[in-house]
Amino acid sequence: MQTGSGAQMQYLQTFALSIGKRYQELEPDADLVSPNKTAVLRGYEGWAYCSRTPDKQIFLVYFEKGCPRSQVRGALLNAAYRAEWFDPRTGAWSAAGMLTSSKIGIIDVPDFPADADWALRLTHESTDGDLPRVDLHAHIEGESPGDNGLSPVEATAISRRLGVRLGILGEGGCAGEIHDDRTLQTFLDSLAGQPVWRGLQVYGFDWQRCLSKSNLDQLDYVAADALVFPQPGAKSVWLWLPGVQFPDAQDFMNRYVDYNVRVLSQPIQVWANPTYLPASLQSRYDELWTPERMDKVIAAAVKNGVAIEINAHFAIPSAAFIRRAKAAGAKFSLGSNRHAVGIGEIDFCLRRARECGVTANDIYVPTRVLPAPRET
Ligand SMILES: [Zn+2]
């Protein structure tokens, strides 16, 4: 490896540590990637280096500039791997899609994003058909203040039993359970050491002011919905409460679409409860979500790289919406949106994704590698 700048060495450490404790299991083996350093004799400019965990679940590969298109060997046979490029100059990740190993465990590496050094992470994806089994909308507190919640250990046990990796969402921003750095740190600490992702469902637009960047950076993702709906000159309306009425449905929809676009303009990864309508309007879903309105919110999600949640609790968005979003290049996220009871139950999400032609390539999964739930 060329001696990079200090920043580059630091980013490489970030790359290695992105797989958490499993970093300690990595075994370097140059023969797992071709061409490797022995190939320099044949006149290649760049070398490639490879490390793998003994169970073949994770590969970390480094390609020097000038390395020709490459293959990785020694993978599980006929298995799905999520591929992600890591830019050692900036520390930025980019998705490289799902790759399938051959029947003798060879993976063809995609084209390099540019002519430079690149690192590649391959992670075996435990899948259902071809879709990842993840629930990024799991709350461990009870639904209402009096309801029983789950401890982090109980949530992990559910993850293992269902074979579903969980993203546990705290809730807050500048108000609510999480409203400052101290309360966010308490949430992060409570889940430290558990094989779950830690996300935050934010409300309002001020959360970046109340929560410091270094604290937010410890989160695996941020989600937001548009269910606390502002009213001109009045208090916001909580759209999920029974009895919420909007006499002028068209006016509501126009304002709701604009509000969703604003929510989607934030630095978030997941759009939660997308296209949700108050109970009084749900029977008019297909009429009110016109193609023009769908296209507005879909375009905002695509432009800002926000994944659209397929939500089991409310059975939204509609298949028509998801097909339209998929055609526009959107990413999706799978979420039960349950509190304690029912977390990890994503059958609806998987069914609807499949029905709409959504593939593993289209599904957002946080960058930090978790162990497969049944291995922990
Ligand atoms: Zn939620």
Draw up the topology in text.
Blueprint: H1 6-17, E1 27-28, E2 33-34, E3 48-52, E4 58-63, E5 71-72, E6 80-86, E7 93-100, E8 107-108, E9 118-124, E10 127-128, E11 131-132, E12 134-139, H2 152-162, E13 165-172, H3 181-190, E14 197-202, H4 207-210, H5 213-216, E15 221-224, E16 228-231, E17 234-238, H6 249-264, E18 270-271, H7 285-288, H8 291-304, E19 307-311, H9 319-327, E20 332-335, E21 338-339, H10 347-355
Bound molecules: zinc ion.
Main attributes of the structure:
binds zinc ion; eight-stranded parallel beta sheet; single chain; TIM Barrel; 376 residues; Immunoglobulin-like; globular; alpha/beta; six-stranded antiparallel beta sheet; 2 domains; 21 strands
Question: How would you portray this structure in words?
Answer:
- With 376 residues, the chain is α/β, with parallel strands linked by helices.
- The chain has two domains: 120 residues, Immunoglobulin-like; 245 residues, Metal-dependent hydrolases (TIM Barrel, Alpha-Beta Barrel).
- Helices cover 25% and strands 24% of the residues.
- It is built from ten helices and 21 strands.
- The strands form five sheets. It has an eight-stranded parallel β-sheet. Strands 1-3-4-9-6-7 form a six-stranded antiparallel β-sheet, covered by helices on one side.
- The protein starts with 5 loop residues before the first helix and ends in a 21-residue tail after the last helix.
- Zinc ion (ZN) binds next to strand 12.
